[in-house]
Protein backbone atom coordinates (compact mmCIF):
# COMPACT_ATOMS: atom_id res chain seq x y z
CA UNK A 1 0.00 0.00 0.00
CA UNK A 2 1.38 3.40 -0.93
CA UNK A 3 1.35 6.12 1.68
CA UNK A 4 1.39 9.87 1.43
CA UNK A 5 4.34 11.92 2.61
CA UNK A 6 3.84 13.12 6.16
CA UNK A 7 6.28 15.42 7.94
CA UNK A 8 7.83 14.12 11.13
CA UNK A 9 9.94 16.01 13.62
CA UNK A 10 13.08 15.48 11.54
CA UNK A 11 11.96 16.68 8.13
CA UNK A 12 14.73 19.10 7.13
CA UNK A 13 18.51 19.12 7.13
CA UNK A 14 18.52 21.68 9.94
CA UNK A 15 16.21 19.46 11.99
CA UNK A 16 18.67 16.61 11.57
CA UNK A 17 21.55 18.79 12.77
CA UNK A 18 19.50 19.71 15.83
CA UNK A 19 18.92 16.02 16.49
CA UNK A 20 22.66 15.36 16.20
CA UNK A 21 23.37 18.10 18.70
CA UNK A 22 20.86 16.64 21.16
CA UNK A 23 22.62 13.27 20.93
CA UNK A 24 26.11 14.81 21.33
CA UNK A 25 26.99 14.03 17.71
CA UNK A 26 27.67 17.60 16.56
CA UNK A 27 30.37 20.15 17.28
CA UNK A 28 29.93 23.81 16.37
CA UNK A 29 32.88 25.94 15.26
CA UNK A 30 32.13 29.62 15.66
CA UNK A 31 35.59 30.91 14.68
CA UNK A 32 35.83 32.13 11.08
CA UNK A 33 37.49 29.53 8.86
CA UNK A 34 38.89 29.76 5.36
CA UNK A 35 37.15 27.50 2.81
CA UNK A 36 40.50 27.08 1.06
CA UNK A 37 42.34 24.24 2.82
CA UNK A 38 41.59 25.26 6.44
CA UNK A 39 38.02 23.97 6.59
CA UNK A 40 38.92 20.65 4.97
CA UNK A 41 41.87 20.21 7.33
CA UNK A 42 39.58 20.53 10.35
CA UNK A 43 37.09 18.05 8.89
CA UNK A 44 39.92 15.59 8.24
CA UNK A 45 40.95 15.73 11.91
CA UNK A 46 37.36 15.00 12.94
CA UNK A 47 36.98 12.10 10.49
CA UNK A 48 34.97 9.22 12.03
CA UNK A 49 34.20 11.53 14.94
CA UNK A 50 31.44 14.06 15.37
CA UNK A 51 29.68 15.95 12.61
CA UNK A 52 30.79 19.57 12.44
CA UNK A 53 28.97 22.80 11.70
CA UNK A 54 31.08 25.77 10.64
CA UNK A 55 29.07 28.83 11.62
CA UNK A 56 31.39 31.40 10.07
CA UNK A 57 33.04 30.82 6.70
CA UNK A 58 35.16 33.58 5.21
CA UNK A 59 33.64 35.48 2.27
CA UNK A 60 30.26 33.79 2.69
CA UNK A 61 27.10 34.23 4.74
CA UNK A 62 26.30 30.52 4.52
CA UNK A 63 27.19 27.90 7.13
CA UNK A 64 28.88 24.62 6.18
CA UNK A 65 28.09 21.21 7.66
CA UNK A 66 30.43 18.26 7.21
CA UNK A 67 30.87 14.63 8.27
CA UNK A 68 27.10 14.42 8.68
CA UNK A 69 26.89 10.74 7.70
CA UNK A 70 30.35 9.89 8.98
CA UNK A 71 29.25 7.04 11.25
CA UNK A 72 26.81 4.14 11.03
CA UNK A 73 24.93 5.58 14.00
CA UNK A 74 24.17 8.79 12.11
CA UNK A 75 23.20 6.89 8.97
CA UNK A 76 20.76 4.85 11.07
CA UNK A 77 19.37 8.00 12.67
CA UNK A 78 18.84 9.64 9.28
CA UNK A 79 16.63 6.82 7.95
CA UNK A 80 14.71 6.06 11.16
CA UNK A 81 16.45 2.73 11.64
CA UNK A 82 16.06 1.26 15.13
CA UNK A 83 19.80 0.77 15.39
CA UNK A 84 22.93 0.73 13.25
CA UNK A 85 22.75 -3.05 12.77
CA UNK A 86 19.42 -2.75 10.94
CA UNK A 87 20.43 -0.15 8.33
CA UNK A 88 20.28 -2.56 5.39
CA UNK A 89 16.97 -3.97 6.57
CA UNK A 90 15.52 -0.46 6.78
CA UNK A 91 16.77 0.43 3.31
CA UNK A 92 15.41 -2.81 1.84
CA UNK A 93 12.03 -2.10 3.43
CA UNK A 94 11.99 1.38 1.85
CA UNK A 95 12.86 -0.08 -1.56
CA UNK A 96 10.01 -2.61 -1.29
CA UNK A 97 7.51 -0.05 -0.01
CA UNK A 98 8.25 3.12 -1.95
CA UNK A 99 5.79 5.90 -1.12
CA UNK A 100 4.38 8.45 -3.52
CA UNK A 101 5.54 12.04 -3.23
CA UNK A 102 3.09 14.91 -3.02
CA UNK A 103 3.69 18.58 -3.60
CA UNK A 104 3.99 20.81 -0.57
CA UNK A 105 3.22 24.48 -0.09
CA UNK A 106 6.43 26.51 -0.28
CA UNK A 107 4.76 29.91 -0.03
CA UNK A 108 6.08 30.51 3.47
CA UNK A 109 9.66 29.55 2.61
CA UNK A 110 12.33 32.20 2.40
CA UNK A 111 14.31 32.18 -0.81
CA UNK A 112 17.49 34.05 -1.68
CA UNK A 113 18.70 34.26 -5.25
CA UNK A 114 22.19 34.82 -6.62
CA UNK A 115 23.86 34.55 -10.00
CA UNK A 116 27.35 34.26 -8.52
CA UNK A 117 28.71 30.85 -7.48
CA UNK A 118 31.32 32.59 -5.34
CA UNK A 119 28.51 33.41 -2.89
CA UNK A 120 28.58 29.71 -1.98
CA UNK A 121 31.24 28.59 0.54
CA UNK A 122 32.64 25.92 -1.78
CA UNK A 123 35.65 24.17 -0.28
CA UNK A 124 39.12 23.70 -1.75
CA UNK A 125 40.28 20.47 -0.15
CA UNK A 126 43.84 19.81 -1.28
CA UNK A 127 46.71 21.80 -2.73
CA UNK A 128 46.79 19.85 -6.00
CA UNK A 129 43.02 20.00 -6.57
CA UNK A 130 41.81 21.72 -9.74
CA UNK A 131 39.87 24.18 -7.62
CA UNK A 132 36.94 24.34 -5.21
CA UNK A 133 34.65 21.30 -5.18
CA UNK A 134 31.17 20.60 -3.85
CA UNK A 135 31.73 16.99 -2.85
CA UNK A 136 28.24 15.68 -2.08
CA UNK A 137 25.76 17.52 -4.25
CA UNK A 138 22.60 15.71 -5.33
CA UNK A 139 21.64 15.99 -8.99
CA UNK A 140 18.08 15.38 -10.23
CA UNK A 141 17.41 14.93 -13.94
CA UNK A 142 14.70 13.46 -16.16
CA UNK A 143 15.08 11.16 -19.13
CA UNK A 144 13.78 13.04 -22.18
CA UNK A 145 12.33 9.93 -23.76
CA UNK A 146 10.67 8.24 -20.79
CA UNK A 147 10.07 11.11 -18.37
CA UNK A 148 11.62 9.05 -15.56
CA UNK A 149 13.45 10.99 -12.87
CA UNK A 150 16.92 10.11 -11.61
CA UNK A 151 18.72 11.10 -8.42
CA UNK A 152 22.48 10.69 -7.99
CA UNK A 153 25.44 12.14 -6.07
CA UNK A 154 28.21 14.03 -7.85
CA UNK A 155 31.23 16.23 -7.27
CA UNK A 156 31.02 19.66 -8.86
CA UNK A 157 34.07 21.78 -9.70
CA UNK A 158 33.54 25.54 -9.73
CA UNK A 159 35.00 26.99 -12.94
CA UNK A 160 33.88 30.60 -12.57
CA UNK A 161 30.97 32.54 -11.13
CA UNK A 162 28.35 30.94 -13.42
CA UNK A 163 29.77 27.56 -14.49
CA UNK A 164 30.62 24.26 -12.83
CA UNK A 165 32.03 21.02 -14.22
CA UNK A 166 30.56 17.61 -13.45
CA UNK A 167 31.84 14.10 -14.17
CA UNK A 168 29.22 11.79 -15.65
CA UNK A 169 30.33 8.17 -15.89
CA UNK A 170 29.42 6.73 -19.28
CA UNK A 171 26.57 4.26 -18.99
CA UNK A 172 25.42 5.47 -15.57
CA UNK A 173 21.98 6.96 -15.20
CA UNK A 174 22.75 10.68 -15.31
CA UNK A 175 24.83 10.12 -18.44
CA UNK A 176 21.90 8.23 -20.01
CA UNK A 177 19.60 11.20 -19.27
CA UNK A 178 22.18 13.53 -20.82
CA UNK A 179 22.55 11.32 -23.89
CA UNK A 180 18.78 11.18 -24.34
CA UNK A 181 18.54 14.98 -24.28
CA UNK A 182 21.49 15.29 -26.67
CA UNK A 183 19.83 12.94 -29.14
CA UNK A 184 16.86 15.31 -29.16
CA UNK A 185 19.17 18.28 -29.76
CA UNK A 186 18.42 19.73 -26.33
CA UNK A 187 20.24 20.65 -23.15
CA UNK A 188 19.50 18.56 -20.06
CA UNK A 189 17.78 20.59 -17.33
CA UNK A 190 18.90 19.52 -13.85
CA UNK A 191 18.38 20.52 -10.25
CA UNK A 192 21.38 20.51 -7.94
CA UNK A 193 20.59 20.16 -4.26
CA UNK A 194 22.90 20.88 -1.35
CA UNK A 195 21.79 20.43 2.24
CA UNK A 196 18.91 18.02 1.70
CA UNK A 197 17.78 15.72 4.48
CA UNK A 198 20.49 13.00 4.67
CA UNK A 199 17.95 10.24 4.00
CA UNK A 200 17.88 11.60 0.45
CA UNK A 201 21.66 11.18 0.23
CA UNK A 202 21.31 7.57 1.40
CA UNK A 203 18.69 6.91 -1.29
CA UNK A 204 20.86 8.58 -3.93
CA UNK A 205 23.65 6.11 -3.15
CA UNK A 206 21.41 3.15 -3.97
CA UNK A 207 21.95 1.81 -7.50
CA UNK A 208 18.31 1.49 -8.43
CA UNK A 209 17.27 0.16 -11.84
CA UNK A 210 17.17 2.83 -14.54
CA UNK A 211 13.87 4.69 -14.36
CA UNK A 212 13.40 4.09 -10.64
CA UNK A 213 12.72 7.29 -8.70
CA UNK A 214 15.12 7.26 -5.73
CA UNK A 215 13.19 10.10 -4.09
CA UNK A 216 10.33 7.69 -3.46
CA UNK A 217 12.76 5.46 -1.56
CA UNK A 218 13.96 8.43 0.49
CA UNK A 219 10.33 9.40 1.10
CA UNK A 220 9.57 5.98 2.53
Question: What general form does the structure show?
Answer: globular
SS element count, helices:
7
Query: What is the chain-wise order of helices and strands?
Result: HEHEEHHEEEHEHH
Number of separate structural domains: 1
Structural class from helices and strands?
Answer: alpha+beta
Beta content comes to 15-25%
Which parts are unreliable, with pLDDT below 50 for 5 consecutive residues or more?
1-8
**Mean of pLDDT:** 88
- Spatial strand order of the main sheet: 6-5-4-7
Question: What would you say this structure looks like, in words?
Answer:
The chain is of the alpha+beta class and 220 residues long. It has one domain (13-102, 114-219). It is built from 7 helices and 7 strands, in the order H-E-H-E-E-H-H-E-E-E-H-E-H-H. The chain has helices spanning 13-22, 38-45, 72-78, 87-96, 173-183, 198-204, 214-219; strands spanning 26-29, 51-54, 64-66, 133-142, 149-158, 164-166, 190-193. A 4-stranded antiparallel beta sheet has the order 6-5-4-7. It has a 3-stranded mixed beta sheet with strand order 1-2-3, covered by helices on one side. Strand 4 (133-142) and strand 5 (149-158) form a beta hairpin. The longest helix has 11 residues, at 173-183. The N and C termini lie close together (12 Å). The model is unreliable at 1-8 (pLDDT under 50).
